[in-house]
Amino acid sequence: MSKVIGIEGLVKPWIIALGGYVASKAPDALEGKMEVATKDVIKLDANENPYGCSPRVQRALAECSSINIYPDAEQVELRKMLSEYVGARPECIAAGNGSDELIGYIMRSFVGPGDEVINCVPTFDIFRHRTQLCGGTLVEVPRNEDYMVDVAAVKAAITPRTRLIPLATPNNPTGTKIPLEDILEIVETGVPVLVDEAYVEFNGETVVPLASKYDNMMVLRTFSKWAGLAGMRIGYGIFPPQIADYVMKIKEPYNVNIAAQIAVRESLKDLEYLRNNVKTIVAERDRLFAELSQLSFLKPYPSWANFVFCSVLKGNAYEIQQRLERKGILIRYFNIPLLQNALRFGVGKPEHTDVMIRVLKQIEKELDDK
Ligand SMILES: Cc1ncc(COP(=O)(O)O)c(C=O)c1O
């Protein structure tokens, strides 16, 4: 060989070009930067559940005596429990270390260098990240001014290289949902469609009863939001059976750990408790929306999830986020070409809304005085 290539020269070009995924910050990482102690942080930046998990989960985990044993790689009991909960056959189900992991497996199954993924932006950034990770090409179809999916534009963007269309409904970060007929119109093109229903429990509209009718429709769910298990990492998908087989074949063997499997079992035994928390969060979301609507510098968009997305009409989203962060209130800001000057507020407990609105009212006053 005449040319010596450094190790980086051997890394796949699409990995070198990959832009990382920006995850939410752990409160511990902000210690010393806030005016409050870490334990008093109000964390509204990752759409987590402020009421936590079912107390049954905590009790069962404290009593678990099988941590030295690998979990069931075939997920037999887990798939059965999920199948009863969701109303689909166990052979159509596969569970993941969060639904994020399953998005990666679906991408790997369908997408390689030169293949196209149609992404209805702005949307959940993992869709971009996992496409690029597979060396795929993103074909971005912008949503309209109300952040609704432009179905005609999606259909027009389909080419012989299109391999996947991920659709988040409700969408993160905008909170908008996609009407059922729009989803089906896209599914009927025959292109594989991944319907991400991470927030379905906060609005109830699902395509799952139709999943068995289409061999190109896949649905993702998670326990992170409604069941308060974000830290446990447990998501699942309802797939055509042959796709579920591929996911089971390519997944990390023990991807769903013992604790997560126990957490699912106990959560499903405590549905009334968890659904009550969901109801409380939905009521608080509507109050948060009403409160944010009163602020002249923000424009909130109606949400079907557990967060409210706002355009910033006056002032700077980053500065507002930083100001709240110093007070120990964590939210997400967006300042990218597709989402300029915008904020996303997770729904917390009523007392969290009150504290946050008080700071936002102070900011409004200062902006008015400028
Ligand atoms: C649309 C969407 N899909 C998937 C996820 C990831 O969920 P999980 O915690 O199960 O990986 C999120 C998390 O924020 C999300 O917003």
* Count of folded domains: 2
Report the top-level CATH class of the largest domain: Alpha Beta
Indicate the CATH topology of the largest domain: Aspartate Aminotransferase, domain 2
Number of DSSP strands? 13
Shape: globular
Q: Give the CATH architecture of the largest domain.
A: 3-Layer(aba) Sandwich
User: How many helices?
Assistant: 12
Kindly list the characteristics that best describe this protein.
single chain; 370 residues; alpha/beta; Aspartate Aminotransferase, domain 1; Aspartate Aminotransferase, domain 2; 2 domains; seven-stranded mixed beta sheet; four-stranded antiparallel beta sheet; 12 helices; 16% strand; binds pyridoxal-5'-phosphate
Describe, in plain words, how this protein is organized in 3D:
It is a single chain. With 370 residues, the protein is an alpha/beta fold. It has 2 domains: 23-51 and 272-369, Aspartate Aminotransferase, domain 1, CATH 3.90.1150.10; 55-269, Aspartate Aminotransferase, domain 2 (3-Layer(aba) Sandwich). It is 36% helix and 16% strand. The protein has 12 helices and 13 strands. It has helices spanning 13-16, 55-63, 76-86, 99-110, 125-133, 151-157, 180-187, 241-250, 258-268, 271-293, 317-326, 350-369, and strands at 42-43, 93-96, 116-119, 137-140, 162-168, 193-196, 217-222, 235-238, 298-300, 307-312, 329-330, 332-336, 339-346. Strands 2-8-7-6-5-3-4 form a 7-stranded mixed β-sheet, with helices on both faces. Helix 2 crosses helix 9, helix 4 packs across helix 5 and helix 4 packs across helix 8. The model has no long low-confidence stretch (mean pLDDT 96). The structure holds pyridoxal-5'-phosphate. Residues 47, 98-100, 124, 168, 172, 196, 198, 222, 224, 230, 235 line the site of pyridoxal-5'-phosphate.
